[in-house]
Model the fold of this input.
Amino acid sequence: MDWDVVLESFPLIWKGAGKTVGLFAWSLAVGTVLALAVALMKISSAKPLIWFATFFSWLFRGIPLLILLFYAFFALPEVGWLLSPFWAAVLGLSLWTAAYQAEVIRSGIIAVDHGQTEASDALAMTRGHSMRRIIIPQSIRIMVPPFTSNATTLLKQTSLATLVTVPEMTLLTQRIFSNNFKFIEPIFVLAMIYLAMTTVLIIGQQIAERTFRLRT
Amino acid sequence: MNSEALVTVSGLHKSFGDVDVLRGIDFEVNRGEVVAIIGPSGSGKTTMLRCVNLLERPSGGRIEVDGRILCEEQPDGSMRFSDKAEIRAIREHVGMVFQRFNLFPHFTAVENIIEAPMAVRGVSRADAHARALELLESVGLAHKADSYPLQLSGGQQQRVAIARALAMDPALMLFDEVTSSVDPELAGEILLVMKRLAQDGMTMLVVTHEMGFAAEVADRVLFLDHGLIVEEGAATEVLGDPKRQRTRSFLRAVLERAPMVEDGMDDDGQ
Done:
């Protein structure tokens, strides 16, 4: 491996880091909000909401992410909805991650001891208050590890946005290939940057686990 | 009907699928009265208690608490339940203490106590906090105000749970086998708190296996078996001189740890 090429490649690839982080952050934020809504629908007692939520997670877990991205980028304009490459990718990634995170959130909520709901009921709290103050805070502790795993996957899958022309890190790396036919060094740099980013997420998981642990 | 009745239950039925857990229960609890509910495991006593604040939805019958109707069987046999807001309004005045404490583990003792008064009653944090400290003092746990539930013993957790229920100024307290998940030597501290509460005039409905407590504190005892009240009366009568064979067999099983006679037919004839 030629270290000079590594050093040359780094700034070229790093230029795409903002887009990678942007795709990740937007998709995680939008996806998590969607996931919470879907999870609450799935545990509600309203049949239509349960059906919708079940349909949602069936659909978006069942279709390859790449095809969702193609839909957002190539198919939506055909029906008159033109998105920039970046927002098309955010749309696809959000729906895809929401379907997975919804299951994480739902399993976290139902894992909280039913006695907590009964105590809230007996104290005349509304269901909304009990969810917000009693159930969800306790479920976060349970959700943190699988939620972080999904978030790590999401970060790496932003590389697929290359195929809908978002100039993120992987796309910029491919440009180096075609400019100077160097492969090993740019791929190494790219892999190390992804690894550094996912390391931050894993550290975040450890901090979150410590924050939400029960005091004994 | 007794105008002093705080709780009036009539014709209460509850089935889970094909299993009839309660098969027609009638009783009243008067203001200031302590009623103990005893009976063998599976007799329906916990289910009956949980119907009083509608944690369990009855399949038949009528329940009235403090002049408000929680549920009422219609002439066509269907059940009509009060709406959510009305049920909450009733629960505001009915405290409940659970067998497994059900404290909120992410809150300190004092946070457990102030949550409902602030959220439900709109009490200010300062007022709720002051009241919580008084209540913790009264259950002997003022020094544990900032401890988390998992840092407390079972007996201490249960006393916090009692304080939490009392913070809503309930007219009625429901106790569901509250000493059953603590070590025997810690049951006494819970029972002492309950005894003081009874002396202060609290209306209490107590599902219990503590026959000593029932004898000493309860005004009345209901003996349940297979979803029916088999015997009821003054605590001294039911516990001291039970009329029914089934009650005698149960008391002997509890007090002498003798096996219970399962097919003991009731000597109704006398």
